[in-house]
Design brief:
The chain is built from six helices and no strands. It has 155 residues and is mostly helical. It starts with a helix and ends in an 8-residue tail after the last helix.
């Protein structure tokens, strides 16, 4: 193991801990709402481990999570399909939208599943999706731009 890899993985692990820790505290120790979703865990891997990836860019993180979550909410509330058909249809449509609109963020592909299984309403879009994604992006900018001095977001 080389020193550079140890530093990179340590910083990624620490900032993942810190970011998810803040979202968890906001969710469980305040009355402000839910800020944490499972797919944010996968976002940590890309954002802190591979920030140069197009999938780690703020627009991809924000709009990827937003589009797929809206898709899930629309399907669960307005598309009268059995759950075994609704979930794959919503995931497929969410993936289509991300790729078509050039905002692909692979962890967001799981959001329709989370939304449908949880029977989420439109309030889910504000919190945890919008607010949570913005918090995640702020931590990504702090680490990548200000601490590691990387060009992040990429232009």
């Amino acid at each position: 193991m080389n020193k550079e890899n140890l530093i990179k993985s340590s910083l990624a692990g620490f900032f993942s801990f810190l970011t998810i820790g803040i979202l968890t505290l906001l969710t469980y120790k305040t009355e402000y709402g839910i800020f944490l979703i499972a797919s944010f865990g996968s976002t940590m891997v890309i954002l802190f481990g591979y920030p140069e990836s197009p999938f780690a860019q703020p627009k991809n993180i924000f709009f990827g999570h937003l589009l797929t979550s809206i898709t899930g909410v629309i399907f669960v509330n307005y598309v009268p399909l059995p759950i075994y058909a609704m979930i794959p249809a919503a995931v497929g449509f969410g993936v289509f939208l991300m790729i078509f609109l050039n905002v692909t963020h692979p962890p967001a592909g799981g959001n329709p599943i989370i939304v449908i299984i949880g029977s989420a309403s439109f309030s889910y879009i504000l919190s945890p999706i919008i607010i949570g994604s913005l918090i995640v992006i702020v931590f990504g900018v702090v680490l990548n731009r200000f601490i590691l001095r990387k060009e992040y977001p990429k232009k």
